[in-house]
Design brief:
Arc Repressor Mutant, subunit A, elongated, alpha+beta, 15 strands, 446 residues, Alpha-Beta Plaits, six-stranded antiparallel sheet
Length: 446
């Protein structure tokens, strides 16, 4: 008998797992974990990714976790009613007012789900059958708050790329109360497979409703300003070798497309591609992916690739790992002598620029990408023609090797340069936005 009970319990948890993955989990690079006193971001963990096993432990009550939304878009929206100072009656009035405005907009009550947070709060949650642009969801959120005259501090927007939401069906560790779905009367829904029966709302219908919302220019500008802040924080980043493997092998897991696009975009940006070229490369990469690994329409993927690339440049998001690190850059005594060996001041500046760039970005074979635009900015030389002439001098001297030309592929050239970490003479501070040659002005090399 007990064996049968355990079998049934395992079967229920597996169905709950699949439902949570279907409804909530579209970004797995990091998650949040609750302790007795606070929430902790998994980016500080040895194994930061959100795995199925982590979700199972959550459902088993072993730990309590939450998830993040995908960058730029989401397939769920939560109105997080978190008013611990208010009475339970007042919280319920606010919940009902929000639900009323959502239904007035045309959203059926059966598509609006209510989750008790386990600590005097409620999550008014809607799920969608396709990704919806985050900006549009924030328009809906702002409109509902305007209609109900509620401040954002009392009803928060969840989830985002940087702000997680607790997953249902586990215990709140501060109160030891169960985070569960509740009905219209705020009573716990006893059906353990209620989550498996949730039908997402048609995203096209919802977008029509949102497009019909009328807001003032000031309200729209305010939403846009806040939306621009959502993705300023970097995520737990993949190593360069992992991104290159991803570029070669393609998508291997579901719900990883958004993360893949961001990491590949950062790689291409590091390699010196411009915005237009990065969008082209991301679109080309998506063209041969296994369609079973993602659900978004390809044309929508292309739109998101444009947004991701624009964000990477606007926010100056960079790739950073042990092979790509700004900060203290060592310059060996032999390297200083090699710089001084060039009689032309501009050649010395270009060689120094390339050497520093190589120390920051080169791979295990001392190979690296660098575009003419990067050479111009970091060396202080004014034109591409000048760079071409100076590069020839470096080739002829044997100090720089052109490994691969990017002319035919419209990509930056790949170079190789000899570097030394012995007998360090200088250690210079290089920041991400520095022109490299200016960081060594005081070394007397010019």
């Amino acid at each position: 008998m007990k064996g049968g009970e355990y079998l049934d319990k395992d079967k229920i948890i597996n169905q709950q797992l699949e439902a949570i993955k279907r409804l909530y989990i579209y970004y797995r690079q990091q998650y949040i974990k609750q302790t007795k006193t606070s929430w902790v971001n998994s980016s500080s963990f040895k194994y930061p990714k959100l795995t199925d096993n982590k979700i199972i432990k959550h459902l088993q009550g072993i730990e309590t976790i939450g998830c993040f939304a995908s960058p730029f878009s989401s397939k769920f929206l939560v109105f997080d009613v978190d008013m611990k100072e208010a009475s339970e009656n007042n919280r319920r009035i606010i919940v009902n007012n929000i639900i009323k405005e959502l239904t007035n907009l045309g959203i059926g009550r059966q598509y609006i789900h209510l989750v008790y947070s386990g600590n005097k709060g409620y999550h008014i949650t809607m799920f969608f059958d396709q990704f919806i642009d985050e900006y549009k969801l924030k328009v809906l959120y702002s409109f509902i708050l305007i209609k109900t005259n509620l401040p954002e501090k009392q009803v928060e927007y969840r989830a985002t790329f940087t702000q997680g939401i607790k997953l249902p069906l586990s215990y709140h560790l501060k109160t030891n109360e169960f985070c569960c779905f509740v009905d219209e009367n705020f009573n716990k829904i006893e059906d353990k497979l209620y989550i498996d029966k949730i039908i997402p709302f048609d995203n096209l219908i919802l977008q029509d409703y949102i497009d019909g919302i009328k807001l003032t220019k000031r309200q729209i500008d305010d939403i846009a300003k806040k939306e621009g802040r959502v993705n300023t924080k970097t995520t737990n980043q993949m190593k360069i070798r992992e991104i290159k493997q991803l570029e070669k092998d393609g998508l291997k897991e579901v719900s990883t497309r958004n993360t893949a696009m961001i990491e590949l975009g950062k790689l291409y940006k590091r390699q010196g591609f411009n915005e237009y070229q990065i969008v082209e490369k991301l679109n080309e990469w998506m063209s041969w992916q296994d369609s079973s690994k993602y659900t978004t329409k390809l044309e929508d993927c292309h739109k998101e690739n444009q947004k991701i690339t624009k964000w990477l440049f606007k926010k100056n998001i960079v790739l950073s790992d042990s092979n790509l690190r700004y900060g203290k850059i060592p310059i060996a005594k032999s390297e200083v002598e090699r710089i001084k060996s060039f009689r032309n001041k501009n050649t010395r500046k270009l060689f120094t620029t390339i050497l520093i760039h190589a120390k920051i970005t080169s791979d295990e074979n001392n190979q690296f990408y660098m575009s003419h635009e990067q050479m111009i900015r970091h060396s202080g030389n004014k034109s591409s023609n000048t760079i071409t002439r100076l590069l020839k001098e470096l080739y002829d001297s044997g100090e720089l090797t052109l490994v691969s030309s990017g002319v035919e592929t419209r990509s930056p050239n790949i170079y190789s340069i000899n570097m030394s970490n012995r007998y360090i003479e200088y250690s210079i501070d290089v920041c991400e936005n520095d022109a490299y040659y200016t960081t060594v002005n005081d070394l007397g090399l010019w």
